[in-house]
Write a structure and sequence with these properties.
16% of the residues lie in helices and 37% in strands. By secondary structure, it is an alpha+beta fold. A hairpin with a 2-residue loop joins strand 11 and strand 12.
Length: 171
């Protein structure tokens, strides 16, 4: 009987440790939908799953008109990986900005014709903005995008290319 109790205690201990380990990973894996809006901080060492208004289970809605911003700490840029992308071509667009969503200059304007699935792109600064606009008819699966901070490389422009590094002039 004592041997059976020891085995049960070991099994319970193992189960508790696995649950704690699983929980630790869940802390760093947050998910957001564009209709939540707002500005979200992504700490270095963590990542975010970013979805359309239908999440990863349903299609996005008709007449969606939402924006959402993400930012990270200085010394990092935000990297996006497009895991899934499906919106109505020529009528529904996801705009991506290298900065806040309400800024006037968008880097990308994606619809189903551009299909950026698998695309990996990094911001030049610490902010990233998304704006989505859908019409009133066809809806699709939307998107699943992973966003994570990555450390910036040291800035070393050549003498012939005095470029901007980390949004500040280098001379």
């Amino acid at each position: 009987m004592k041997n059976l109790n020891n085995k049960m205690i070991k099994a319970k201990t193992t189960l508790i440790m696995l649950l704690m380990l699983f929980g630790a990973f869940q802390i760093n894996a947050q998910s957001y939908t564009i209709n939540q809006g707002g500005t979200i901080h992504i700490a270095p060492g963590s990542s975010v799953q970013f979805y359309d208004s239908g999440t990863d289970r349903y299609d996005y809605g008709n007449h969606d008109y939402y924006s959402m911003d993400f930012y990270t700490d200085p010394g990092y840029v935000l990297q996006i990986t497009v895991n899934l992308f499906s919106v109505e071509a020529r009528y529904d667009y996801l705009y991506i900005n290298n900065g806040r969503a309400n800024s006037s200059s968008y880097v990308f304007k994606w619809d189903d014709n551009s299909r950026p699935t698998g695309t990996i792109w990094e911001t030049s600064g610490t902010e990233l903005g998304f704006f989505f606009d859908s019409d009133g008819s066809v809806t699709r699966a939307g998107w699943d995008i992973t966003i994570e901070p990555v450390a910036t490389a040291p800035c070393a422009p050549t003498t012939s290319d005095l470029s901007l590094c980390n949004n500040s002039a280098t001379y």
